[in-house]
Amino acid sequence: MSAPVAPFPQVEHQRAVFADGLALDCGAAIRPLAVAWRGYGRLNAARSNAVLVCHALTGDQYVAETHPVTGRPGWWETIIGPGKPLDTDRYFVLCANVLGGCMGSTGPREEMTDAEGRGLGRPWGTDFPSITIRDMVRAQKRLTDHLGITRLLGVVGGSMGGMQVLEWAATYPEAVFAAAPIATAAHHSAQNIAFHEVGRAAIHADPDWKGGRYWEDGRVPAQGLSVARMVAHITYLSEQALTRKFGRRLRGASALTFLEDVFEVESYLRHQGSTFVRRFDANSYLTITRAMDYFDLAAEHGGDLANAFRGTATRFFVASFSSDWLFPTRESRALVRALNAAAANVSFVEFATDKGHDAFLLEEPEFHRALGGFLAGCADRLGV
């Protein structure tokens, strides 16, 4: 049983629990391992129609249904469902909360265990070991094995989800027929690491941080976590998107002041921050951002990104968005060059949009048609 930590409501997540745990890249091990997950559609008799969706930093497994905490629609309902690009009449769409997350998978908010797997009656907190994107993928592989899925029709994800897609293709190529890394890169840039560090510093500076043991008082570093979310959210948008949505519109403040929202964009960011702290754990945020920062697929393969994919039979669909400055198109082109050098089967599209990094989550019909066509073609080839 997980130790309760304010302000999260208690939610019973669908989970697979592995008593033997998981060995991590850092040399530590966690036991048992819990992987929280959701499935949409039906797994066919041959178990050949499964598409794994990997979520981004602040996402979770509730990808195509009402979220049990926020009450909001699933974060990718635009493309998952009957007749949509990830057609649940044809595919079994699977999504798991990442290792280190805070929606039911083993992470800092879950109950800490000893080397024998016995609960210690308190959350892991900052004692949770360092994890990598590859560790997240290993945990997902335990889930797919548990479900009897030996080969995924596809693995799809954007941003940090795209990093997981690349790690899947590199680590388990025989288990991935098709891979769609979207709005992502094979490593985190210095600029992205810098933005993450600003967010982590805001959390550490919060008086309620208490060295990461905020759970002892039933509190959370809400102010710091809110600022971290605000900073990150700015990077998800483009200047054009911010101007179109808000411009310099005022909220009717009576005078120039720092004590209230003057501009609409300020109110929007504060809303993003305040809602975030009600669904996300600060220690999970620190854990997952670090995993993103350390991700470097080329370094895992002798410094040559092409080595990660040599001999692969996986088919790739790489997508970027023209106004994404968090994971710009040049990062996708570098990935495509490496795939070409490895003689991989790859298609690449840059989509013109002014919506920034978040475009992959929003209504982008050309992107949706391309992704849906890629997956349908792969399914046709496998006879799914």
Task: Write the topology of this structure.
Elements: E1 15-18, E2 22-23, E3 29-30, E4 33-40, E5 50-54, E6 92-96, E7 111-113, E8 119-123, H1 133-146, E9 152-158, H2 160-171, E10 176-182, H3 190-205, H4 222-236, H5 239-245, H6 264-276, H7 282-294, E11 315-321, H8 329-341, E12 345-351, H9 365-382
Parallel strand pairs: 5-6, 5-9, 9-10, 10-11, 11-12
Antiparallel strand pairs: 1-4, 2-3, 4-6, 7-8
Number of helices: 9
How widely separated are the two ends?
40 Å
Find the CATH topology of the largest domain: Rossmann fold
The oligomeric state of the chains shown is single chain
Shape: globular
Helical content class:
25-40%
CATH level-four homologous superfamily name of the largest domain = Alpha/Beta hydrolase fold, catalytic domain
Percent in strands: 15-25%
Helix-strand sequence = EEEEEEEEHEHEHHHHHEHEH
Provide tags for this entry.
384 residues, alpha/beta, Rossmann fold, Rna Polymerase Sigma Factor, Chain: A, 2 domains, 8-stranded mixed β-sheet, two-stranded antiparallel ribbon, 9 helices, 32% helix, 16% strand, globular, disordered N terminus
What does this structure look like?
The chain is α/β, with parallel strands linked by helices and 384 residues long. The chain folds into 2 domains: 15-189 and 294-382, 3-Layer(aba) Sandwich (Rossmann fold); 192-289, Rna Polymerase Sigma Factor, Chain: A (Orthogonal Bundle). Helix content is 32%, strand content 16%. It has helices at 133-146, 160-171, 190-205, 222-236, 239-245, 264-276, 282-294, 329-341, 365-382; strands spanning 15-18, 22-23, 29-30, 33-40, 50-54, 92-96, 111-113, 119-123, 152-158, 176-182, 315-321, 345-351. An 8-stranded mixed sheet has the order 1-4-6-5-9-10-11-12, sandwiched between helices. The two termini are 40 Å apart. Mean pLDDT is 92; it is low at 1-6.
